[in-house]
Every structure is written in C-alpha cells, then in structure tokens.
Write the structure tokens for this entry.
Amino acid sequence: MNAPPASKRPLYTTYRTPNELPPDSPLRRKIFEVIFEADTPAGKAFDVALLIAIVLSVVAVMLESVGEIRAAHGRVLYAIEWLFTLLFSVEYLLRLISVRRPRGYALSFFGLVDLLAVLPTYASLLAPGAQTLLVIRVLRLLRVFRVFKLTRYLGEARLLSRALAQSRQKIVVFLVAVLTLVVIMGSLMYLIEGPANGFTSIPRAVYWAVVTMTTVGYGDIAPHTVWGQALAALVMILGYGIIAVPTGIFSAELVRAVRKEKGHDACPACGRQDHDHDAKFCKHCGAPL
C-alpha cells in the first residue's frame, strides 16, 4: 500500500494526551506547535524557557518566606511573583485556545496543575498568605520528561504506579490493623498511667502510641510507671516489625509488575524466557510455567 502524499499526511503524529489535539485554524495550529510540540526548535525553546521560569518562580516564593529576605527585598519578590503569574496566566489561556478540546485539557492533570499554578496569587488578594501555595508550580517540572525525551523514566514510573495500585488493598488492610492496634495500646496506656503522668485522655494516649510505634519518639509525653514503660517497650518492638510490612508488600508487587512487564521467568524445563505475559505453558517445550 502506497504512502499518502505529503500534502495529506498529518502534521502532528505524536500527541501527549487525547485532549492535546491540534486545531484546524492555522494560527491556533501554530500556537499549538510552539506550546505542545517539543520536537520542533520553537517548541523546545519554549519548553526550556518555561522550565527555567517555573524554577525561578518557585525560588522566588521560597525566598519570600524568609523573614530577613522579605524585609529587605519584599517589594521586588512581590513584583517578580506577579510577573510570573501573569506570564503563566497568558500561557494557560494560550494552551486552552490552541487545543481542539479546551474543556478536556482544562480537566486533565497538566491542565489542573497549570490552573493551580496561577490561582494562589489571585487568591492572595482575598486571603493574604495564599501565595505560599504557589510552590505547587514545581509539579509543572514534570514536563521535563517529555521535553528532554526521558520517556524511559516514564516507563519506570508506570511500573511504580502499577505496583502501588496492586498493593493498595493490602496496605489498606494493614493500616486498619495498625490503627486498631494503636487505639488498643493507647487505651491501655491511659489506664496504666492516667492524667497524673500526662496521659490526660485516650486520644492523647493514642497520639503517644502512634508516635512511639512509628519510632518517631518526640518525647513530649512518656510513661513513668514500671508497667507503662513495659508497655512502651512492647510498642517500640512492634513498631520495628510493623515498619517492614508495607515495604515488603510494595516490593513484592513491584517484582510482580516487573515480571509482567518483561514476561515470565525462565521456563523450568528448557530455560527459555521469551514468553507472553498471560502464558501458562512454555511455547517452546510445553512445560508448565
């Protein structure tokens, strides 16, 4: 079958999401090429400049939170903050204008992140201090993966997310069991120590149990009686054993996800490895996998 003539070939053959489709208007298509197409010189230059602007804006927000710097350069940082906000606002509007499905892009992950990157500054006009939330702009740096063609890292990220999804139910059951355990231990400590030793209520005793079982140990509240210290020692030992459980669950699911990605292990009969993901028998010798 002959290839279609050059005039009928699609101008853009690689899209990031179904919502990032080029429009029919030539002007909007040109804007789309610059904003969304990292493969073109103009598109890559735009994305690199955008990443630099994101980093600078986040640094400005972080510096503004330091009292000494804010006192000396507060007005400059405030002006920089609004400058980046206006630039990102224009960029966000151009993204909506240049895609074929503006609503779809606005509700996508990057669309919501782009919107949240500018809202805090406007919200600070009504609620002073809201501009601190501008650090969410750092999420926009995720575009670096497609700008510099680091797609292999996206594949690894998919493996991690798949492992997390597969281990979700096990981890939820584990957390419910831990929650039940800390409530029991906290209640026992409240009965043993009582308000005289700082355990003024069961919720406060449960807080102590959580801090102790997670091996954080703030030290703001501690048992004083022999039986209370014995219970504390038991909770500490349980904490060391419990911490390893979610790690093991996730590790097992991660190994399983990697195996599904790469296929089955070697056949126990012939040693060949190139099997389909859902294969139950070796396609070379017929042995069970």
